[in-house]
């Protein structure tokens, strides 16, 4: 603890305003031995001096005359084992060198007797191995610090299970690391940047099943990735800001889709299968068949043409079941023949040519027999001929 000088005699030194700034021992007009230093008439230092310098075992006081530091001094600087206080609570205790925290030491929570950090210091900064604690005394982080910043280690939940293991940068998760649920099961393993998932990584549910593996940016799925459900792939393709966007393949129940996505919805050109059979090829918009497309059943083309919100709308051709023969070629509205169109026999001879409304001949139209001979031409009203 150094040398402690015994009390000899008092002398008093005052400033120009006649206020006491020192009382204690002098030697050759220099503070030497035991003495008390004042600032603004309040005790600032109370202990030993040598040649005007604080020396040996000493006590410093704050503006309220509360002890703020007790320790050894060398050349008027904190040096040796010491304790720093605030409001009579310990802030730091252990080794000092040249007025700096150096070596092993402990930091405490403000106005508390609970340790916040215990580890190695160099020039007032945490450097080397150390532990950070919750206010209940349990370890929060066990790691390595450099220039007061945590660079790697293990972080724990308050229940003692691992929370994070890996590197830190600017006190945030960084690099290839692992994050855990509070149960201790892995939640994420992969790359992190600024505390966010960024780069390649995998997330798991709390039963250790993979939910997603692929690329991340700013904590959101961005780039190529694979989604899982019950250990089965339900989507593989590209993402943008956590949503399926771009080219991808979607597997849901008995349906398989391969094509374009926008904002998690089928949008653009794609191919749809139902129970492994081709169902549709063409354009989608917001999950609906929309634009040019072809509809299939039992691997046969049953309709090709225009779609609007999943319905035949515009010009389109419908085919006979399990056949390449045209049933109808013309206009549609809401899945029904509407406008001008031609109806064919299976032999591809015209059966009816004319106008339609709600799947019925309406307005002007011509009817033909199976030999192609005209039977009737004129006006129709809801499938009924209107004779002159």
Radius of gyration using CA atoms only: 43 Å
Query: Which regions have little confidence, pLDDT < 50, spanning 5+ residues?
Result: 1-9
Main sheet characteristics: 29 strands, antiparallel
The helix content is under 10%
Q: Look at the structure and give the mean pLDDT.
A: 87
Provide the structure class: mainly beta
Global geometry: rod-shaped
Q: Would you count the extended β strands for me?
A: 34
* Number of helices in the DSSP assignment: 0
Kindly report how far apart the N and C termini lie.
127 Å
Q: What is the percentage of strand-forming residues?
A: over 45%
Q: Secondary-structure blueprint of this entry?
A:
Layout: E1 11-14, E2 20-27, E3 30-39, E4 42-50, E5 53-54, E6 56-61, E7 67-74, E8 77-86, E9 89-97, E10 100-108, E11 115-122, E12 125-133, E13 139-146, E14 149-156, E15 162-169, E16 172-180, E17 186-193, E18 196-204, E19 210-217, E20 220-229, E21 232-240, E22 243-252, E23 255-262, E24 265-274, E25 277-285, E26 288-297, E27 300-308, E28 311-319, E29 326-333, E30 336-344, E31 350-357, E32 360-368, E33 374-381, E34 384-386
Antiparallel strand pairs: 1-2, 2-3, 3-4, 4-5, 6-7, 7-8, 8-9, 9-10, 10-11, 11-12, 12-13, 13-14, 14-15, 15-16, 16-17, 17-18, 18-19, 19-20, 20-21, 21-22, 22-23, 23-24, 24-25, 25-26, 26-27, 27-28, 28-29, 29-30, 30-31, 31-32, 32-33, 33-34
């Amino acid at each position: 603890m150094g040398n402690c000088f015994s009390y000899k005699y008092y002398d008093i030194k005052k400033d120009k305003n006649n206020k006491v700034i020192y009382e204690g021992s002098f030697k050759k007009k220099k503070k030497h031995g035991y003495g008390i230093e004042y600032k603004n008439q309040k005790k600032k230092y109370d202990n030993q001096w040598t040649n005007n310098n604080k020396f040996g075992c000493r006590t410093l006081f704050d503006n309220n005359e509360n002890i703020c530091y007790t320790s050894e001094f060398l050349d008027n600087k904190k040096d040796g084992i010491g304790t720093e206080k605030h409001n009579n609570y310990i802030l730091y205790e252990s080794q000092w060198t040249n007025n700096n925290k150096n070596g092993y030491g402990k930091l405490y929570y403000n106005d508390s007797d609970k340790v916040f950090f215990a580890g190695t210091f160099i020039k007032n900064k945490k450097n080397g191995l150390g532990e950070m604690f919750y206010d209940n005394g349990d370890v929060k982080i066990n790691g390595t610090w450099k220039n007061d910043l945590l660079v790697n280690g293990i972080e724990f939940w308050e229940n003692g299970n691992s929370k994070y293991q890996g590197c830190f940068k600017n006190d945030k998760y960084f690099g290839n690391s692992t994050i855990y649920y509070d149960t201790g099961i892995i939640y994420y393993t992969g790359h992190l940047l600024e505390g966010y998932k960024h780069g390649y990584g995998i997330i798991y549910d709390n039963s250790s099943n993979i939910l997603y593996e692929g690329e991340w940016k700013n904590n959101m799925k961005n780039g190529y990735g694979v989604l899982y459900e019950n250990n089965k792939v339900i989507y593989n393709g590209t993402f943008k800001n956590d949503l399926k966007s771009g080219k991808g393949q979607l597997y849901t129940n008995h349906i398989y889709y391969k094509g374009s996505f926008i904002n998690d919805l089928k949008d653009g050109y794609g191919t749809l299968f139902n129970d492994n059979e081709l169902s549709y090829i063409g354009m989608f918009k917001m999950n609906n068949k929309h634009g040019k497309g072809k509809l299939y059943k039992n691997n046969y083309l049953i309709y090709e043409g225009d779609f609007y919100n999943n319905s035949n709308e515009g010009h389109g051709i419908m085919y006979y079941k399990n056949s390449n023969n045209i049933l109808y070629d013309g206009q549609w509205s809401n899945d029904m023949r509407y406008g001008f169109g031609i109806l064919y026999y299976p032999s591809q001879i015209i059966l009816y040519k004319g106008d339609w409304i709600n799947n019925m001949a309406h307005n002007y139209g011509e009817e033909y027999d199976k030999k192609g001979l005209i039977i009737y031409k004129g006006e129709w009203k809801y499938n009924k001929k209107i004779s002159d």
